[in-house]
């Protein structure tokens, strides 16, 4: 990225919870400049300050207060090189495809295209190589595209676990079994979220569709991108098929505002498996491509390993590095599988907007988006 060069970006769903997080992060970004804000027709035409019910812990950035909100239509964003989508899934599908068809690069937090066989599902510290499928996505579009594409980031609970899992697979080879129990913050349900009568003094042992997302997304993210059998030149995601990985997830909503805590147990294909100390060292040493390439939003420490027996905790650890990394603790031997540990991720940062922004930074540095 040329020093001093700035790239115009837009934010869709800018008045929502994820959209506000995009606005907060992008307002201080060294490369990306917020050029357009998009929201529903009822917000269009108002200034951002008038349209938004600001719910961030930091003040609304001064530079966006007077910006006029646009409808989420491609013609309003034509001079943006990148568009970040914080849209709800109910609205995201048609809008994101329209923006892609208009030759705009869309980095989406929505779930709509995560299962598309030509759309990369990227956790920036894990599988940036999956950006290589974008030329195929563009070529198969009718008509073929030159610049437009969609990249999705993962479900917030999936993101938290695949980062340490990727570190373990890099150090010790493939995993065979994964058991995960989540304790997910109420902000993951959006605003206004879970009713106080449902969540106070309570745990809700069901989050619709969440377990299936973790069990499926983990395989796409940790798997490879391979040549499709019988179709020369065609790529497909192998879903970790070369070393089959079985995943079982149990998801719970807990009375915490931000920060997903997940209890993980894994079994390695390698025998004998690594020791807990070897696992701690591998997690602490993990350096992803995003850091090596110089993504400005990548944290100094991708994985912070805690030695204390009672860490990580959401209230104490979710804000570390502005929520851009993950925290792991209680690494120990598992008497059923091999190793078990606890991971904490900030679901509204690395679990949402921060991932999309680093994905876009990677796309710029790899030349997928012209700088």
TrEMBL record:
One of its GO terms (biological process) is methionine biosynthetic process. Residues 8-134 form the Semialdehyde dehydrogenase NAD-binding domain. Pathway: Amino-acid biosynthesis; L-threonine biosynthesis; L-threonine from L-aspartate: step 2/5; Amino-acid biosynthesis; L-methionine biosynthesis via de novo pathway; L-homoserine from L-aspartate: step 2/3. It is an enzyme of class 1 (oxidoreductase). Keywords: Amino-acid biosynthesis, Methionine biosynthesis, NADP, Oxidoreductase, Threonine biosynthesis. The keyword Transport does not apply. The keyword Thylakoid does not apply. It comes from the Eukaryota. Catalyzes the NADPH-dependent formation of L-aspartate 4-semialdehyde (L-ASA) by the reductive dephosphorylation of 4-phospho-L-aspartate. Mediates the second step in the biosynthesis of amino acids that derive from aspartate (the aspartate family of amino acids), including methioinine and threonine, the latter of which is a precursor to isoleucine. This is Aspartate-semialdehyde dehydrogenase.
């Amino acid at each position: 990225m040329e020093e001093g060069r700035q790239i115009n970006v837009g934010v869709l769903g800018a008045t929502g919870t994820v959209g506000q997080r995009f606005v907060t992060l992008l307002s201080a970004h060294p490369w990306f400049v917020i050029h357009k804000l998009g929201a529903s027709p009822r917000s269009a035409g108002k200034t951002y300050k008038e349209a938004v019910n600001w719910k961030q812990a930091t003040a609304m950035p001064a530079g966006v207060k007077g910006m006029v909100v646009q409808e989420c239509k491609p013609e309003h964003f034509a001079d943006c090189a990148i568009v970040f989508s914080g849209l709800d899934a109910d609205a995201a599908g048609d809008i994101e495809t329209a923006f892609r068809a208009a030759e705009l690069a869309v980095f989406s937090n929505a779930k709509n295209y995560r299962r598309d066989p030509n759309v990369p599902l990227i956790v920036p510290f894990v599988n940036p190589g999956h950006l290589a499928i974008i030329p195929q996505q563009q070529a198969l579009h009718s008509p073929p595209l030159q610049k437009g594409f969609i990249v999705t980031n993962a479900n917030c609970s999936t993101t938290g676990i695949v980062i340490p899992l990727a570190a373990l697979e890099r150090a010790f080879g493939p995993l065979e079994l994964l058991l995960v129990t989540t304790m997910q913050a109420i902000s993951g349900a959006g605003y206004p979220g879970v009713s106080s009568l449902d969540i106070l003094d309570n745990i809700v042992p069901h989050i619709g569709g969440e377990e299936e997302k973790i069990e499926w997304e983990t395989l796409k993210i940790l798997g490879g991108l391979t040549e499709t059998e019988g179709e020369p030149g065609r790529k497909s995601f192998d879903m970790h098929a070369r070393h089959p990985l079985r995943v079982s997830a149990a998801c719970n909503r807990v009375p915490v505002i931000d920060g997903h805590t997940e209890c993980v147990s894994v079994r390695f294909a390698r025998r004998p498996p690594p020791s807990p100390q070897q696992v701690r060292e591998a997690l602490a040493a993990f350096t992803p491509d995003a850091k090596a390439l110089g993504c400005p939003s990548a944290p100094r420490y991708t994985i912070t390993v805690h030695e204390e027996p009672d860490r990580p905790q959401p209230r104490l650890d979710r804000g570390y590095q502005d929520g851009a990394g993950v925290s792991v603790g209680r690494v120990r031997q598992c008497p059923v599988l091999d190793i078990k540990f606890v991971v904490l991720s900030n679901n509204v940062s690395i679990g949402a907007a921060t991932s999309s922004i680093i994905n876009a930074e990677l796309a710029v540095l790899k030349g997928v988006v012209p700088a």
